[in-house]
Design the sequence.
């Protein structure tokens, strides 16, 4: 299945947002937000969200600074 993650095309074999994030980020999921096709996905829904061919996933990492 072909999806886009932060404007990069990825070919994946699974269809779960949780599995994708685990493979990309490992345990480093604190301080991030996820949007699929410009719709924010709440963290408590990550494990039940399925991905589809052509989905555009945006991973936003919170940063500190001033």
Sequence:
């Amino acid at each position: 299945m072909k999806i886009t993650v932060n404007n990069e095309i990825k070919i994946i074999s699974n269809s779960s947002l949780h599995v994708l994030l685990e493979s990309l980020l490992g345990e480093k999921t604190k301080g991030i937000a996820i949007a699929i096709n410009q719709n924010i996905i709440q963290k408590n829904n990550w494990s039940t969200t399925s991905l589809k061919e052509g989905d555009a996933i945006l991973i936003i990492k919170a940063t500190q600074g001033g």
Summary: The domain at 2-61 is CATH 3.10.20.30 (Ubiquitin-like (UB roll)). The mean pLDDT is 90. The longest strand covers residues 56-61. The chain has one domain: 2-61.
